[in-house]
Amino acid sequence: MVMWVFGYGSLVWNPGFHYDEKVLGFIKGYKRVFDLACIDHRGTPEHPARTCTLEKDEDAICWGIAFCVRGGPEEERLAMEYLERRECEYDLKTSVDFYKEDDPLNPAVTGVMVFTSTPDKVSNKYYLGPAPLEDMAKQIATANGPCGNNRDYLFLLEKAMHDIGHEEEYVIELANEVRKVLAEKVSPVKEPRASRVSSNTKSNVPTAHQILPQQSEAVATTI
């Protein structure tokens, strides 16, 4: 038996389960959005984090990593148990076609599983829905949970997409907006012009490449 799962969030840099093969590629008809609440990994019920889910868009593609688990029912069961614990905020498992860069017209693998969520605040308590970029940035900049803070999740995703050669404008724009929020939080109180620090002084806000992946966790962040 063979199981394939597509990662488009933290699975890209931190899969956390045993796999036999990973392949870079994309799926069609979906785009990455930060519309899902995380209340037990990178946030809390009182201050939820914003993490990735997928939104249907017939003109979009979403780059990520497909992981293959071989070895029989037991290996598949262990991987699925781990993923269901980790991706507990996702209420859907969707089957998609997966494409590789060298053949964008014909699927490399069919029936690939991807964790997604119902975009309905009534039926899905974890669905936050879209919000203005500035509001999302403020939420991401300040949310923290047992597995770390929300901003590192975003910065690590930004770095992971750069590392696989497929940077995403939406992710970069959101990450830069979060950096603006963080810069405002650490800025000193205004002083007379003569005593201000030179504008050439480097910012204390980290870039994506200054964030290193954290150690594997028993229950990690969302996909």
Automatic annotation (TrEMBL):
Main location: cytoplasm
Protein known as: Gamma-glutamylcyclotransferase
Location of this chain's protein in the cell: Cytoplasm
Keywords from the UniProt entry: Cytoplasm, Lyase
Pfam families in UniProt: ChaC (PF04752)
Cellular component, GO annotation: cytoplasm
Alphabetized InterPro entries for the sequence: ChaC (IPR006840), GGCT-like (IPR013024)
PANTHER family, per the entry: CATION TRANSPORT PROTEIN CHAC-RELATED (PTHR12192), GAMMA-GLUTAMYLCYCLOTRANSFERASE (PTHR12192:SF24)
Cofactor: Mn(2+)
Family per record: Belongs to the gamma-glutamylcyclotransferase family.
GO BP, sorted A to Z: glutathione catabolic process
UniProt GO molecular function: glutathione specific gamma-glutamylcyclotransferase activity
